[in-house]
Design goal:
The chain is an alpha+beta fold. The chain contains 21 helices and ten strands. It is 52% helix and 9% strand. Bound molecules: adenosine-5'-triphosphate and magnesium ion.
């Protein structure tokens, strides 16, 4: 079996300049086995006992050293995927782009990856586009090769289960201590290879509050245009991550600083000179970060609605000027903004439906008659839409009266609600006679 596998796998070309790693022994770092998930330990030990090299690597080592709770535990080894499968009954091989082993422990998964190398070290080089981007990455290599294809030095520390030491080829430990985010290799070249690293740089800098090296900073702005070459599906996945890490506000500030935001949200980016829109997005991100701090669930649909609200409202005004009635104008605005946005980020169908509902509710909130408000309160998206309306008011849109009315209605008894509906009915009728129009925001004007 082993012979067969070897024949089908490309062997790496000899490395040009062998680097010497720094080995940090167990008594000189803070990672103890108690901090490592028992399932990850089981996987590491099994590989080690079978004679393979086995390391914890990536975000988990970085987070343990920083005293943060790792999201997951990833393992790197010199065992090939088929060999890993031979060792674990609960193993599933996945991935087209790279073959990875998933070891399943109920709902918990430990990902085990065979050391890989850069394409330029491999025997053939069919894995790059003409822009130099890596599109296929399944060439096995040594530990040193595996280090060099990683993005940042702090993500390239290896915890060795053989002697509990850390293997450090890139001065990652020093960068962790000094809180520095440093690209491994030449930033311009590494951003070209995979422009998603632009967003990852910003995400890690915001989340870990780390300082980007000046040479990487220079190339962040210069290389921002490369984002257009990344698939919308991959970009969407990266964006979802930063909403969930408690540093969404800081991340968006950095994305704007490095001119990356306008590549991700071009329609919104073009409107951020308007204070009320800037405020709205600021409050929505701040609110999300606060919820994460309090261990409350967050809603990507709410955030995407807030992020897309500025172009949506502007498109609505435009369609109104073209004499479309308010409701069709509003629907058309949502449709056109979402479909333009999906060219950059492949927002899932389900999320698009939710964003559409939250935004349509902004319109429906202006209809405060009869049974309508009772129906809206029961809508599954009411809470997210209500929160968005409150933030819009707080951000300076002229809807204070509407937002206040809804918070009162929401908190009132049935009798109080009935009374509120009677009075609002009168004021709406009166207004209709006067203005003959009822725009979402303009009801009070
Ligand atoms: P997080 O805690 O946010 O998951 P992470 O560092 O674990 O952070 P992952 O996306 O899970 O990030 O990736 C795991 C590891 O794989 C990284 O630490 C890094 O070493 C490597 N990696 C991931 N994406 C890239 C990339 N685009 N280029 C180079 N290396 C990458
Ligand atoms: Mg991770």
């Amino acid at each position: 079996m082993k012979g067969l596998i070897k024949k089908t796998i490309k062997s790496p070309a000899p490395a040009k300049n062998k680097l010497q790693p720094t080995i940090i022994p167990r008594d000189e770092h803070t990672i103890s086995r108690k901090m490592i998930h028992p399932n990850a330990l089981k996987v590491l030990y099994r590989l080690h006992q079978a004679g393979y090299e086995a390391y914890l690597v990536g975000g988990c080592v970085r987070d343990l050293l920083l005293g943060r709770k790792p999201k997951d535990f990833d393992v790197a080894t010199n065992a090939r995927p088929e060999e890993i499968r031979g060792l674990f009954k609960n193993c599933r091989l996945i991935g087209k782009r790279f073959r990875l082993a998933h070891i399943l422990f109920g709902r918990d998964i430990i990902e085990v990856a065979t050391f890989r190398t850069h394409h330029e070290n491999a025997n053939e080089d069919h894995g790059k586009t003409h822009q130099g981007m890596i599109i296929r990455d399944n060439v096995y290599g040594s530990l040193e090769d595996d280090v060099m294809r990683r993005d940042f030095s702090i993500n390239a520390l290896y915890y060795n289960i053989a002697d509990f030491s850390l293997v450090d080829y890139t001065q990652g430990m020093q960068d962790i201590k000094h809180n520095v985010l440093r690209m491994i290799g030449d930033p311009a070249k590494r951003f070209h290879e995979d422009p998603v690293r632009l967003i990852r740089a910003v995400r890690f800098s915001a989340k870990l509050n780390s300082c980007i090296t000046p040479e990487m900073e220079e190339h962040l702005i210069k290389s921002s245009y490369l984002l257009q070459h990344v698939s919308p599906a991959r970009l969407f996945q990266e964006i979802l991550k930063f909403f969930q890490e408690g540093a969404a506000l800081k991340t968006v500030e950095l994305l704007r600083k490095y001119h990356l935001f306008e590549h991700l949200f071009p329609q919104t980016g073009a409107l951020l000179h308007k204070m009320e829109y800037q405020n709205l997005i600021h409050f929505a991100l701040e609110n999300t970060d606060q919820r994460i701090k309090e261990n409350k669930p967050i809603s990507p649909a709410f955030l995407f609605s807030a992020l897309l609200w500025p172009p949506l409202w502007e498109a609505f005004l435009l369609f109104e000027q073209q004499h479309l009635p308010a409701y069709p104008a509003f629907e058309k605005a949502i449709q056109s903004v979402l479909s333009a946005q999906c060219k950059q980020l492949a927002i899932t169908r389900q999320l698009q439906i939710s964003v559409r509902e939250i935004c349509l509710l902004q319109y429906r909130f202006t209809h405060r008659r009869g049974k309508q408000p009772y129906r809206l309160i029961l809508h599954p998206r009411f809470r997210a839409a209500y929160d968005l309306m409150q933030l819009r008011a707080q951000a300076g849109e002229p809807i204070e009266e509407l937002a206040h009315w809804w918070s009162q209605f929401y908190e009132s008894t049935h009798e109080q609600r009935e009374k509120m509906l009677r009075t609002v009915k009168q004021s709406s009728l009166h207004k209709k006679q006067r203005t003959k129009k009822s725009y979402p925001h303009k009801e009070k004007s």
